[in-house]
Amino acid sequence: MKIYVGNMPYSVTSEELSEMFGAHGHVSEANVIVDFESGRSKGFGFVEMPNDTEANEAINALNSSQMSGRTLRVSQARPRTDRGDRGDRGDRGGNRGGWRR
């Protein structure tokens, strides 16, 4: 099961995320999502646990728990939706209120 973990402190690493969930069962993968340009954490990540029973126990145990003064949001991840071609930004937001002749 893929698990979403949100509202994490920006200092959390993928290894720490894996250890946190590893206390509740086998973790096959843990990733903190980072900003492409800055390399800094975006404050959320995903954990993959192959055993659904262990995954649900981890969700129940860790959702709304505190980590460095932040309340974690932990839930089953929703399927990713297609957001279109993100490589071509086109004219979205190109003219931000300026006069155009």
Which features would summarize this protein structure in a list?
single chain, 101 residues, alpha+beta, Alpha-Beta Plaits, 4-stranded antiparallel sheet, two-stranded antiparallel sheet, 2 helices, 6 strands
Give a nutshell description of this structure.
Helices cover 20% and strands 27% of the residues.
Would you write up a description of this structure?
- The chain has two helices and six strands; from the N terminus they run E-H-E-E-H-E-E-E.
- By secondary structure, it is α+β, with helices and mostly antiparallel strands.
- The chain has a single domain, classed as RRM (RNA recognition motif) domain (Alpha-Beta Plaits), CATH 3.30.70.
- The strands form two sheets. A four-stranded antiparallel beta sheet has the order 2-3-1-6, with helices on one face. Strands 4-5 form a two-stranded antiparallel sheet.
- The termini are far apart.
- The model has no long low-confidence stretch (mean pLDDT 88).
